[in-house]
Amino acid sequence: MEEKLPAAQSKQTALAGQYLTFTLGGELYALGILSSKEIIDYGNLTEVPMMPVFVRGVINLRGSVVPVVDLLARFGKGSTPIAKRTGIVIVETTSETDDGGSQDLGIIVDAVNEVVEIGQQDIEPPPSFGVGIRPDFINGMAKRNGRFVILLNVSKVLSVDEMAALSKVRQDRHALPDTNNA
């Protein structure tokens, strides 16, 4: 019988490079700068019915409809309270299906901090437990100024395919007849 490594050790750790750091729910997170397209102020969100709870709505970005995801809700930690520094980071994601197309998504963050250079020596493999979010959402943990920065795996956190499947499950659930009132 083949012995399997824990998930944290079997996947590739994040690579050195530039990262956009932001705060969310009191934690410090980072996304690779290459997947981040722009940062905009929070506002002008149009709610869309029958979406998963973590999809807060859509915005019109220069004529394109861009879905906006509440990362805190995506992590199962409630919704992000809107405050003065709340922003939306526009991120380009690629589909995991055969078409390989890309999709722009917005993510709501408490505050955008800065772009930082993180060296490979400062990156640890992601923990297999204890962070409070799904392990496949994390590419690594970076040590910076005496704190850990959670390096997010954008293709997993913002998987268009997974979010579409979750939306379909929610729509199917609403389409079922209500048997509780019978």
TrEMBL record:
Span of domain CheW-like: 16-163
SMART domains per UniProt: CheW
CDD domains: CheW
Domain of life: Bacteria
InterPro entries: CheW (IPR039315), CheW-like_dom_sf (IPR036061), CheW-lke_dom (IPR002545)
SUPFAM superfamilies: CheW-like (SSF50341)
The name this protein goes by in its record: Chemotaxis protein CheW
Species lineage: Bacteria, Pseudomonadati, Pseudomonadota, Gammaproteobacteria, Methylococcales
